[in-house]
Amino acid sequence: MVDISFFGNHRALKGTITVPGDKSISHRSLIFGAIANGTTVIKGLLRGNDCLCTLACFKQLGVDIQDDGDTITIHGNGFDGLKESERILDVGNSGTTIRLLMGLLSARSFYSVFIGDDSIHRRPMDRIIKPLEQMGGRLHGRKNNRYVPITVVGQPLHPTEYTLPVASAQIKSAIILAAMQTNGVTKLIEPAKSRDHTERMLKAFGGHIEVEGTTYAVKGPQNLTGTAIQVPGDISSAAFFIVGGLITPGSELTIQSVGVNPTRIGLLKVLEDMGADITLSNEREWNNEPVADITVRYSKLKGTTISGDLIPQLIDEIPIIALLATQADGETVIKDAEELKVKETNRIDTTVGELSKLGADIRGTDDGMLIHGHPSKPLKGGHVHSYGDHRIGMTLAIAGQLSTEPVIVEEAEAISVSFPSFETLLKQSQS
After folding, report:
1. Which is catalytic among the residues 234, 316, 349, 361?
2. How far is it, in rounded angstroms, from Cα 109 to Cα 152?
3. What is residue 417's predicted lDDT score, i.e. its pLDDT?
4. 311: which DSSP letter?
5. What angle do CA 275, 18, 416 make, to 5 degrees?
6. Which positions make up the binding site for phosphoenolpyruvate?
7. pLDDT tens across 213-237, in order?
8. How far apart are CA 272 and CA 103, in angstroms?
9. Active site residue 316
10. Which end of the chain is more exposed for a tag (fewer CB within 10 A), N or C?
11. Is 0.85 topped by the overall pTM?
12. Are 106 and 132 in contact (CB under 8 A)?
């Protein structure tokens, strides 16, 4: 385990930076490249541990992938190009890898076994298994098909109609990957709109999906064609620098080429409600994904309420929003966020517990948090713990911008899951 001390000494964040590639889009570019026919060239791929696990799994499944350190080149041979792995597929800490590959491999004609780290072994997989079983899939897990290890006995599936119990891009994407290999039309209905990177990526590779509101129809079987992919910066990673700029006096920071997908900009909507000074410029599209440069300046903020359909758009940003709320005038209420309990950690408990150690006025609820902001009250330093969760680790690191003493983050190596260059970039931005 690695402990890292973060102490910005209230130094402003300034200049122009670029954050790593979007994690969700990076995963999907590897997956679709592997199942497409022909060559896919990927630039800007996030080289964090999660995406590298996805890459390693496809190599085990017989896909020809070359990596020159800058560009990923995949020589795909369609769905039939996937071969049974001789070894267990280890997904590390990546929930996206295991859940999407469960859907993909459930329709292949071979046997697969998944394992992961301690966190993955505690995260529920039945939410993926149930709809796949409804399609005729054969998947087996520990404790009544709920937990890893998971075995997948691939076989032909049949189309179905399925209503998701929660808005989840992972559940939706797993079913889409299975449906693409199935004869007939599979229909999905979400209770609210979740991230749509899979739908956009599918179309970029020449696939087809009908979307009407929160209803999706996928007709299979489908064949995809390899293409060139440029991965934009991850707004969930940019969020830490956005918040750092908003809460540190004197800051003015521009983050270049960030993905601003409409299903991912809940953070920006919340910040606008709180009075943040944020500007988007140089707006364009990369592979059906909207991209922009984001400039943020120190702002005086006010509390707000975050709930309902907005939650799926910012579920990964809630820990850093909680930190931001400690510096906003008034109360911030976060609710309808039960999904936080089944992330890498129970993010409600860990966010509340660790920020409380630093002097934040915050308490947890059954489905979220209540934060009383005190803009004139700095946080204190001390030892805190990431619990192996990259987003908790980065939230606590940014708390060091406000603290009177260093914030020492235990298990800070977890940050490398999505942002290997985080510490270096933070130091470079501090004026």
Report:
1. 316
2. 10
3. 83
4. G
5. 100
6. 23, 95, 123, 170, 347, 391
7. 999 999 999 999 999 999 999 999 9
8. 37
9. yes
10. N
11. yes
12. yes
